[in-house]
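Methods, example record. To illustrate the input and output format used throughout this study, we show the complete record for Gamma-glutamyl kinase. The sequence lines were provided to the predictor; the line carrying structure tokens was produced by it.
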Amino acid sequence: MLIFSRYNLVLLAVPKTGSTALEVALGQEADGRFGNPPEMKHLPLYRYNRFVRPLLQLTTGQDPETFALIREPISWLRSWYRYRARNSMALLPTSTCHISFDQFVREAMSDDPPPFAQVGCQTRFLSPGGSGGPITHLFQYEQMDLACKFLENRLELELDLPWLNQAAIGPAPLDPDLEAQYRKIHAGEFQLWQDASI
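The corresponding predicted structure is encoded as:
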């Protein structure tokens, strides 16, 4: 999470949406930065509204606007799957090295996902909770050019994003019936993504 008090803007870091690249590109310009641990870096909107927003309102006298990216949900799952398939994670319980993408998605939809399939949900991350309003500026990850143009205009700078934490490229097919099931269960997430940055 990056705080730009001078510009009345807070960037929330939805996992697997280029947040590390944005942090590297903009971190030096930020007035406040939550980089570690991951629970702080990836503070969801409902926790921001409850804990951080009141502090910023008190110290700046303004109600900061919020910015986030959302990724097409199947692409988002595939990114998690590939990220956890790295050789360096092979012995960890979160590893996906020895399972198919179908199994990963099936387990992610279960009521009690195993560690390798615990990825949360973008809709939940972007839920305002009961302590504040919805996200102010939401852009599709797939339209990064629009998001960067917004940030450049708002923060009065030029952005050159380094692409970090990219998952290994490889085939990760998904059974059409399983995809249809996921789309039905997570219809709200697909709608939120579709409505972003229009």
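Annotations derived from this record:
The chain has a mean pLDDT of 94.
The longest strand covers residues 65-70.
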